[in-house]
Amino acid sequence: AVAPVARQRQCYAAGKMAFSALGSELHSPSSAKIESTAAPANGEAMPTVTLVDGFFCAIRAFYAHERWSPETKKGAPSGAIYGFAKLLLRLRQCSPSGHRGSHLAVMLDSSIEGLERRRLFPGYKRGRLKMRQTQTEHRGTDWVLEENSRATISAGLTSQLTQLPILCEALKVKWFRAEGYEADDLLYTFAEAARIDNDVWIVTRDKDLMQVVGPRVRLSAGLVTEDSIVDVDWVVRRWGVRPDQLGDLLAMTGDVSDSIDGMANIGPKLAALLLQKYESLE
Question: Using a CB cutoff of 8 Å and minimum separation of 24, what contacts does 99-102 make?
């Protein structure tokens, strides 16, 4: 079981690999690659970088407006776009820290089929691909997303996700997508580059990204409330391990949403105890 789990561990560490692979192309957010939200009154940029998990936040907005779904003049659903636009406008004025940030950028996913992670571990997200192919054949939809371990197929949501780059450009917010990589990889890459001389906030609740949490990197759902902040202490309380051990824990326990099988008879509590004793999967 060790060899497959080692490959699964590589999947969870893919953000670190992306950092070296993309580092020459994607510069630090403190450079001109990411546009400043605005300079403070003293003319000096505040060292706070906000990175947004685009699809995660848009899907979250979609479900937040599921009962009351705003529509365009032509009757097309626009709940995801509406909620995401509100989030970006708020983040332009105030970072999740509660203070005005210096830089803001959105990271978007590329197609599942060409992911570098699938080369490292061919079984990665195989369930999503199978469902996507089935639904495309029988219902004509072309996107499958999962939230809370259930598949959600919505042509209305798909059409809104494709509009995110247009929305970002209209609001003058820099956005990035790299073929072969997920938004997670880009978020990890930029966070690693920016944490050297900036405070970094990542707007997401994706547990995979909790690996990058550290003294200068925190996660937030986008709201300025104490219980929405994911820092090192939060990760230790929730998972029983440090952020840098979380990839090993997830590789051992598996993850249904990513088609990671994990190791037989090992759940989160046992995995945490093993990592507390032995430090790492190796």
Answer: 99/46, 99/48, 100/37, 100/38, 100/40, 100/46, 100/48, 101/37, 101/46, 101/48, 101/49, 101/50, 101/201, 102/30, 102/36, 102/37, 102/39, 102/45, 102/46, 102/47, 102/48, 102/49, 102/198
